[in-house]
């Protein structure tokens, strides 16, 4: 087994881990990045599927994501706007296809009033929430002990309004049923984007894409780090001595033994238990990590010879809380003559279709897309389903969130270091929570904390 000496070892070569490594190197420190996969990027992954470039993981950039935008500029990456010209599509409960423009769905006037009212109430609550510390809100415990579904029920009796508001948080973001997460967790999700209105506005939250794919961010960061990034190295053991912290920490994979002063776990909390710790993590971490779980969504890519929906005057943007694919967008790549649609099947609906054969699942999903775009949607030349739930080193999508009551109970402790072990990922970000922007912010934060610890130790030595 090869032994390596370094200042900081980082477990995970996603946006957070590679950002942390980059910041540490800028400060003159040595780093080693250990990545279990055979690629960098984590939940960012741009793949070639049957000759089509598909962003299998995260892909969008919104105007408020300052940290991500700064990184894109620093790396020399270009962006382009998501196609949005034309009318949007909404499918009603009775299957009626309705075309509309703007942010509010074409629903009955009373339902529209309820939706607008709910958005206003949520915006007012979100304005009171600090995304860095939602547990500090005076009503945090109360809001964390009521499900988002139950909270919506206390505000309105309009089922269509509840379904549509719930869709923006449950289906589009946390990818869990509204009864499975708290009102406080929903408020954090909205606060991380600045307001609930921002989540409702697809033109804001899904504003731009990166030419060549968003995985270009971790790829270029890794290129700058060179041989410091070690692929195919799942970490098995982290060992340190609490009574002799000056001895540092040893991180062991199947092939490498890396000795450092600090270690950063830059991976989703649900993967922490894949590592053995000597000594074991404290009781608090053992309990806390059991109250965090991943959501689940299928990201469906359908590529066609042409973007035929544009000829119909459609933007490609489509929503319905009654459809298997609850939302879909024009996802055509920059400069591509072909057209690509991306649709999403979330939480319990995703569970259901994964009980079907692959052929039946494809048929069901394309049938749903055809309700938005017509018969042509059933006949893509390339079809692919991003199934992050089956990825060994991810196990869900898009990200992790607390169960009922967990955010108020444990949220303040999620980033707390354990000896030389520090934690960073988008799942524990405030602003940019669950997004690449949050991953970058957490990478910067944990790098600064590790530097402080190294400098303090140097001053004591």
From TrEMBL:
Q: Which residues bind substrate?
A: 344
Q: Where does FAD bind?
A: 16, 35-36, 235
Q: Which UniProt keywords apply?
A: Oxidoreductase
Q: Which cofactor is essential here?
A: FAD
Pfam families, per the entry: Amino_oxidase
Domain of life, source organism: Bacteria
Q: Does the keyword Ubl conjugation apply?
A: no
**Could you state a single Gene Ontology molecular function term?**
oxidoreductase activity
> Any idea where the Amine oxidase domain is?
16-450
Q: Would you identify the family this protein belongs to, as annotated?
A: Belongs to the flavin monoamine oxidase family.
PANTHER family per record: AMINE OXIDASE (PTHR43563), AMINE OXIDASE [FLAVIN-CONTAINING] B (PTHR43563:SF1)
Any idea what this protein is called?
FAD-dependent oxidoreductase
Q: What is the lineage of its organism?
A: Bacteria, Bacillati, Actinomycetota, Actinomycetes, Micrococcales
């Amino acid at each position: 087994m090869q032994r390596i000496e370094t200042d900081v070892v980082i477990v995970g070569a996603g946006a957070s881990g590679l950002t942390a490594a980059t910041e540490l190197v800028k400060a003159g420190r040595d780093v080693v990045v250990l990545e279990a996969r055979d690629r960098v990027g984590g939940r960012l992954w741009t793949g070639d599927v049957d000759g089509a470039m598909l962003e299998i993981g995260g892909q969008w950039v919104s105007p408020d994501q300052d940290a991500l935008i700064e990184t894109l500029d620093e790396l020399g990456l270009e962006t382009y706007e998501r196609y949005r010209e034309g009318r949007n599509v909404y499918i009603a409960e009775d299957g009626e296809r309705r075309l509309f423009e703007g942010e509010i769905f074409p629903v009955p006037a009373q339902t529209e009033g309820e939706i607008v009212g709910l958005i206003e109430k949520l915006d007012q609550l979100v304005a009171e929430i600090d995304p860095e510390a939602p547990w500090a809100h005076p009503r945090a415990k109360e809001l964390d002990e009521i499900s988002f579904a139950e909270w919506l029920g206390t505000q309105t009796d309009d089922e269509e309004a509840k379904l549509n508001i719930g869709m923006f948080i449950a289906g589009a973001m946390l990818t869990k049923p509204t009864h499975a997460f708290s009102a406080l967790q929903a408020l954090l999700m909205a606060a991380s984007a600045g307001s609930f209105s921002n989540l409702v506005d697809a033109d804001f939250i899904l504003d731009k894409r990166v030419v060549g794919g968003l995985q270009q961010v971790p790829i270029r960061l890794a290129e700058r780090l060179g041989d410091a990034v070690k692929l195919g190295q799942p970490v098995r053991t982290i060992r340190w001595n609490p009574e002799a912290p000056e001895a540092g920490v040893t991180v062991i994979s199947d092939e490498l033994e890396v000795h450092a002063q600090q270690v950063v776990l830059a991976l989703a909390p649900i993967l922490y238990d894949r590592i053995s710790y000597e000594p074991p993590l404290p009781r608090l971490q053992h309990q806390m990590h059991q109250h965090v779980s991943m959501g689940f969504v299928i990201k469906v890519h359908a590529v066609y010879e042409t973007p035929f929906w544009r000829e119909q005057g459609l933007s490609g943007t489509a929503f319905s809380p009654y459809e298997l694919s609850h939302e879909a967008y024009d996802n055509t790549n920059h400069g591509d003559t072909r057209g690509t649609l991306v649709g999403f099947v979330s939480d319990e609906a995703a569970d259901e279709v994964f009980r079907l054969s692959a052929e039946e699942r494809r048929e069901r999903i394309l049938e749903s897309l055809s309700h938005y775009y017509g018969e042509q949607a059933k006949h893509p030349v390339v079809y692919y389903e991003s199934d992050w739930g089956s990825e060994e080193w991810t196990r869900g999508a898009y990200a992790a969130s607390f169960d009922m009551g967990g955010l108020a109970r444990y949220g303040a402790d999620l980033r707390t270091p354990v000896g030389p072990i520090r934690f960073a990922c988008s799942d524990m970000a405030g602003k940019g929570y669950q997004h690449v922007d949050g991953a970058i912010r957490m990478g910067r934060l944990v790098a600064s904390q590790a530097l402080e610890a190294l400098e303090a130790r140097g001053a004591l030595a």
